[in-house]
Amino acid sequence: MGDWYRDFANSGLGSTLVRQLGLPRPAVLRRYEPGAPLLPGPAVVGTAGEGRLHGVLTRVLQDAGVPVLPAVDGDGERLAAVLLDATGGTSPADLAAAHAFLAPALRRLGPSGRVLVLGDPPSAAGSPTQAAARQALEGLVRSVAKELRDGATANLLLVPAGAEAAVPGPVRFFLSGRSAYVDGQVVPLTAADVPAGEHEQRPLAGEVAVVTGAARGIGAAIARALSRDGAHVVAVDVPAAGDKLAEVANEIGGTAFQLDITAPDAGQRLVAHLRERHGGVDVVVHNAGITRDKLLVNMDAARWSSVMAVNLQAQLDTTQALLDADGLLGSGARVICVSSQSGIAGNRGQTNYAASKAGVIGMVRAWAPAFAERGATINAVAPGFIVTEMTASMPLGTREIGSRVNSLQQGGLPVDVAETIAWLSQPSAAGVNGQVVRVCGQSFLGA
User: Fold this and answer.
1) CB within 10 Å: which end of the chain, N or C, has fewer?
2) 3-state DSSP call for residue 204?
């Protein structure tokens, strides 16, 4: 399931040929490896406006051992990251400082570099002028993301006053290799109690995580990532996938639990299993999903209802069962739901699938306040074109177009989805709640 064109374009002969022909050259992305440094080189931190988070950003970098340059000069070494604290802006005139800092810094940005901008939520602005300045950052960041090359990404964090403690975890994610395929995204934070002393390499140590649809593909990658980060994983899938499910569970030292999540008693059976075997659950990943594609006018009722049952209703029913089970899903719990780019942009021949995945987003947003009251979070991840066994069977032309129509000019890998889910599962992600994070390389569809 490799990317033949990317590999060719980065070979000696291929690199020369694609340059001569003016063809795109997708970069080999920097992905997370346990023990690797947060960044492979220095970073620079600038301000535009009040810049109330400058000290927080500097401390995050220094604590990770990243050299922080005082300024950008013309002939220094390549930068691994460019961070702009644009909080406290009051008018569009403040954006001139953003341009003055970013323009020279981006010229120095190295391969797989990171650009991260932090601003205030436009919804909390005190005037139309202030709201305009805050909203302008979204257009700036999304455009910068489309201008970057060599696997570099740009993202925006919106940080309201009082949410400073929630900043370090998301900053580390967006600077690290975990976010390799997350590009051009806007993630609002909220004030939250973030536990101190999280283990850098095993942030989920001692926790219990449930992953549905874990027998193969993205689900198996999620199970591996959560296990690597310290969790005991309860891998769930249908009985027909029992052999593959057992292989995944044995590989990671987890537990296999065969369950049809659409069964009327599925939620109660899962609750009973978790209570009896583990005493509770800390992370729940609703990954299981199916497709039954057909144009709407040709779609029969069975195709529609089966997709809705697996992709949406099962998530609703299972989550409600966990919430109703006294003491099972408590403070600090994380629920992550797998949506899809199709649920945001739509897709021809996938009305049932797109509707179900859009429904997941609505569910997450509606449940977020109730989760916040428990000290828990619920979020969604929306993958774009991810290279799997299923996409490998697509016609070559369809597959190539699907994988190239994004800022990174390549399809993502199952591990890219898994890394984003693993981050949202961490205690340090407490300030992210009710959000949808696209893992799509900044897809041009629905962007």
Assistant:
1) N
2) coil
CB burial of residue 126 (10 Å; 0-12, 13-18, 19+): exposed
Claim to verify: residue 146 and residue 252 sit in the same structural domain? no
How far apart are alpha carbons 10 and 5 in whole angstroms? 9
N- to C-terminal Cα separation, the chain: 26
Marked catalytic residue, from 5, 32, 181, 353: 353
Quote the CA–CA distance of 103 and 156 in Å, as a whole number.
17
- pLDDT for residue 336: 98
Give the helix/strand (H/E) hosting 337.
Answer: strand 334-338
CATH number at residue 246: 3.40.50.720
C-alpha distance from residue 228 to each of 18, 19, 206, 441, 447 (Å): 38, 39, 12, 24, 32
Q: Convert the pLDDT of each residue in 237-248 to its tens digit.
A: 999 999 999 999
Q: Residue-wise over 359-382: b if at least 16 C-beta within 10 A, else e? A: bbbebbbebbeebbeeebbbbbbb
Q: Is the per-residue pLDDT at 161 higher than 90?
A: yes
Question: Could you read off the pLDDT of 214-237 as tens digits, one per residue?
Answer: 999 999 999 999 999 999 999 999
Total domains in the fold of the chain: 2
Given 131, 160, 188, the domain boundary residue is 188
Angle at 391 between CA 288 and CA 414, to 5 degrees: 55
| Residue 201 forms part of a structural domain | no
Closest CA to 118 of 57, 183, 62: 57
Overall pTM surpassing 0.90 (yes/no):
yes
86: domain range?
Answer: 39-188
